[in-house]
Amino acid sequence: MNDRDTALLTELIASKICHDLTSPVGAIANGIEIMEEMGADDNVMSLISFTATQAGAKLKTLRMAYGLGGADESIKLEQIHQTYNEFIVGDNRIKQDWNPYMDIGFEKNRGFPKLLMCCLILAGDGLPKGGMVSVKAQEDDSLLISAEGEKANLKDNIIEALALKTPVEDLDPKLVHPFITRLFANKYGYEITVCDAPENFIFLRLKQAVVS
C-alpha cells in the first residue's frame, strides 16, 4: 500500500465514522428540544445542549479535514471559515481573524478545503495558551496561515511528522494529524511549509505544488 492508498483509506474511514455519528448527535439535539418543552432543569439542559453542539461542530470539522467529501473544491472559503469557527468557539481560547470572502489569488483545486482546514487545526494546536489564527493571501499564489499567542510553537516532533520523517510505529495521537496532513498534501498536489516566525507566532504556508 502506497501513501496515496493510505490517504484514501483514511478519508474513507473518516467519512464513515463521521457519517455514522452525525445522526445520533443530531438525535440528541432533537431530544433536548423535547426535554425543554417538558420543562427540564435549565442548568442540566444548558450543559447537555452545549455538549451536543460541540460534538456536532467537531464532527463537522473533522469530516471536512479527514473525510473524502472535504476534498470538494466547490466548498467555499466562507464555509471553511464558519466550520472552523464552530470548532473553536466552544473552549473560548482560540479565535480567528481573516476575511472569508478574500481573493486567494489562485484557483482552488481538489483537496484545497481539507488542506486549509488541516492547516487551521494544526495552527490552533500550536496555541497552548490560546490566541488568534488568521489566513492571508500572498503574492506568490500561496496562503499564509498564522497563529499568534503566548508560547505559540510547533514542536520539533510535530514538524518532523509533518515532513513524514516520523516512522509510523512511532506516531501517537498528537502526531497523527500533521502526518496525515502531509499525506493529504502529497495526494492532492499541495505543499505545506513551516516558515520562520518570531516568538509567539506560527507561520504555515499552503501552496499548490509545482509540477515538473
In short:
The protein has about 210 residues and is of the alpha+beta class. The protein has a single domain, classed as 2-Layer Sandwich (Heat Shock Protein 90), CATH 3.30.565.
Overview of this protein structure:
- The chain is α+β, with helices and mostly antiparallel strands.
- It has a single domain (3-208), classed as Histidine kinase-like ATPase, C-terminal domain (Heat Shock Protein 90, 2-Layer Sandwich), CATH 3.30.565.
- The chain has helices at 3-37, 42-66, 77-88, 112-125, 156-162, 173-188, and strands spanning 94-96, 131-137, 142-148, 190-195, 201-208.
- The protein has a five-stranded mixed sheet, with helices on one face.
- A hairpin with a 4-residue loop joins β2 and β3.
- α1 (3-37) crosses α6 and α4 packs antiparallel against α6.
- It is globular and about 60 Å long.
- The model has no long low-confidence stretch (mean pLDDT 88).
Relevant terms:
5-stranded mixed beta sheet; 5 strands; Heat Shock Protein 90; alpha+beta; globular
Total DSSP E strands? 5
Low-confidence residue ranges: none
Oligomer: single chain
**DSSP helix fraction:** 40-55%
**Secondary-structure arrangement, i.e. CATH architecture:** 2-Layer Sandwich
Q: For the record, what is the CATH homologous superfamily label?
A: Histidine kinase-like ATPase, C-terminal domain
The fraction of residues assigned to DSSP E strands is 5-15%
User: What do we call the CATH topology?
Assistant: Heat Shock Protein 90
Morphology call: globular
Strand order of the largest sheet: 1-2-3-5-4
* SSE order: HHHEHEEHHEE
Instruction: Please give the alpha-carbon distance between the first and last residues.
Output: 25 Å
